[in-house]
Amino acid sequence: MSPVPQLVVHRDKELMAQAAAARLITKIVDAQSARGIASVVLTGGRNGNALLAAVAASPARDAVDWSRLDLWWGDERFVPAADPDRNAVQATGELLARVPLDPARVHPMPASDGVDGADVEAAAERYAQELAKAAGPQDRGRVPAFDVLLLGVGPDTHVASLFPEHPGVRESARTVVGVRGAPKPPPTRISLTLPAIRAAREVWLLAAGEDKADAVALALSGPGELLAPASGAYGTSRTLWLLDRAAADRIPPQLYPPASA
Ligand SMILES: O=C(O)[C@H](O)[C@@H](O)[C@H](O)[C@H](O)COP(=O)(O)O
What we know:
Layout: E1 6-10, H1 13-35, E2 38-42, H2 46-57, E3 69-73, E4 75-77, H3 87-94, H4 120-134, E5 148-152, H5 167-170, E6 176-179, E7 189-192, H6 194-197, E8 202-207, H7 213-219, E9 238-244, H8 245-248
Parallel strand pairs: 1-9, 2-3, 2-5, 5-8, 8-9
Antiparallel strand pairs: 4-7, 6-7
Protein name: 6-phosphogluconolactonase
InterPro entries: 6-phosphogluconolactonase_DevB (IPR005900), 6PGL (IPR039104), Glc/Gal-6P_isomerase (IPR006148), NagB/RpiA_transferase-like (IPR037171)
Keywords: Hydrolase
């Protein structure tokens, strides 16, 4: 059962990043209070990075027990570990280097100069095993039930590295796939699949700017995940679309009446 998406529309992308950061901090604190440990899946892209920068700048970040946070990634560019194009490198620059995380709880996806070398399928399988190890019996042994899974939405409706009509978006068995020939550079990537994304309790999709307006409108109009991967990204208890006004501009009003500020 896919929860009906809930839309929150902010004035602009700066306010969207601030509000999403406040929301994420609160969510982590609540999850830690309820279960001891919280888990978050990070995304690459400008909006995901802006959110992390806003968390770093927030005085409320000290309310989080960073040593009890598991961090995972939804996708990664398959380049060497120190490459500035890596989502993990960018997240480290924006936030991770500034908070006292437990390194054993930080799970970057493999890099192209790792133990599997350039074999992106083997690297993807390695990450799938790492996720399976962290999953409990209640998670059906495949991936943990992440508290929050963040996804930037691309102008073609891609999420993570699942692109419209690419093989990755059709994957129904594996939790992690290697991606070749991605339309967004670099072409070789690792990505969680839709079944893995849908194991998250909450999925938050981020989109800002006029260049995302068509993608957001399309994904919310129900074209199916093959044509619009973002429409196949939902959580077990909540699916939140965090938007700025420009990105929300073309959503058919009869589908989602504006309900936010
Ligand atoms: O590795 C990546 O590039 C991503 O994880 C990708 O899925 C990204 O999140 C979207 O393309 C949105 O990116 P923007 O927020 O920059 O538009």
